[in-house]
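REQUEST FORM: STRUCTURE PREDICTION
Request ID: SP-0412
Submitted by: Lab K.M.
Chain count: 1
Length (residues): 81
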Amino acid sequence: MVTGYEDGDEDAEIKANITIYPNERNTEVYWIVQREFVIRERDRECPDNDCYEAGRLRRVGDTNTYTMTLTFDEITREDIR
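STATUS: Completed
RESULT:
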């Protein structure tokens, strides 16, 4: 569920911070939207003409923390329920 947005909001963006330890380097990171669509790093999915795009996994400084962004063309009712 996406909080802080309303149905119809455009160009919404959420970020997740992920900790990946050196022994977990082959970890696959992805988003699940509308409880149905899997969006992997650098992928774009466009169900019902509203697109979701997952950004590149980026390392935060010299730590084991990474961040990944999910961008919504437009927030739909399915995203906030």
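NOTES: The chain has one helix and seven strands.
Reviewed by: T.R.
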